[in-house]
Amino acid sequence: MSVALTSSSIPASTRQQPLRVMVVDDSVVIRGLISRWIEAEADMEVAASLRTGLDAVNQLERINPDVAVLDIEMPELDGISALPLLLAKKRNLIIIMASTLTRRNAEISFKALSLGASDYIPKPESTREVSAADIFHHDLIQKIRSLGAKLRRAVPSMPSPPLDRSREPSARPALPPLAQPHAHPQPPLVRRAFSIQAPRVLLVGSSTGGPQALMSLVAEIGPVIDRFPVLITQHMPPTFTTILAEHLARASHRPAHEAVDGEIIKAGQIYLAPGGRHMRVFKHAADAVIALDDGAPVNFCKPAVDPLFASAIDVWQGSIMAVVLTGMGSDGMRGGKEIVAAGGSVIAQDEASSVVWGMPGAAANAGICAAILPLNQIAPKLVRLFSGDRS
């Protein structure tokens, strides 16, 4: 069977319609599980449940999904091969790669991000593991909803009556509608003055869209890394963080690695929180030291940004520069508040350049940011601030 590559303008959904999700996985168990979760949500529906990437490519125009959950390992046409073919047919299709936690699949997921996938999600080794399945369920639905919300904001709203599900035999549970940030005029965001204290450390938090943003950022802040330590928390599972650290080292041409419990923090290094563990810092004599924490998730995340941000205050007081990059949720906002209260500064990525403006939006709307900048302006600003600029 041949794969026809055609470029077409498939109309996207209006805001009033549920998000149409195409599930592509060769496992009937996984397809059924994901489909049931999606159908339980009032703001999304299963547009199709398909076994192979080839089915997805050949049926895309007929199905017209908003979001595709795409497995990596499938017969006939695997996920990484299907990805560019799907995007060639529908440029604004949101694709979430799904794979089990292996190094090979993690590498493929990173490649998929560079080819246009919006995000990735690790599948549990066994759906019989209740806790793993619950995390997969929560994360997948949140990713679909957060990424879909941005797609809907980019499409002009067309008037249509709300869907009446009350008479359906098995009506879905009512959920609050997706936020529409541009539906009403928003008050201007408050910006604070930058701290008068010279920064001595750079802390970065990120989630959805973070790997691409981080690699872009570290490639341009060499002068900062050379003179100061850089600590990063990216919401990411084990194995994925190992590979992300390798990518960061290549992008920055500086040493980057997963942080090790008890190691002394030094300038010239990028420290990445390892998947599945919170990264905190503490002071021991004259040294700043890494502390890895195997505690409960914070903000549904492990690692989380808030533990890093909050713990850094005891080490560097007000001499902290924190950056909140693209990501869903609000992680980093509470820790950012504490940094600002201690005399430090926070920069947030702006909405237009963010894949999801959840985390940076939460920081911006909390009024704690000294700057809200496009991604390509954050690195030059950091270089100036760490070189003595205070404005």
From TrEMBL:
Entry comment on modification after translation: Phosphorylated by CheA. Phosphorylation of the N-terminal regulatory domain activates the methylesterase activity.
Record bears the keyword Cell division: no
Catalytic residues in the record: 207, 235, 331
Keyword Metal-binding among UniProt keywords: no
A family per Pfam: Response_reg
Function statement: Involved in chemotaxis. Part of a chemotaxis signal transduction system that modulates chemotaxis in response to various stimuli. Catalyzes the demethylation of specific methylglutamate residues introduced into the chemoreceptors (methyl-accepting chemotaxis proteins or MCP) by CheR. Also mediates the irreversible deamidation of specific glutamine residues to glutamic acid.
The protein's name in its UniProt record: Protein-glutamate methylesterase/protein-glutamine glutaminase
Organism in which the protein naturally occurs: Bradyrhizobium lablabi
Gene this protein is translated from: cheB
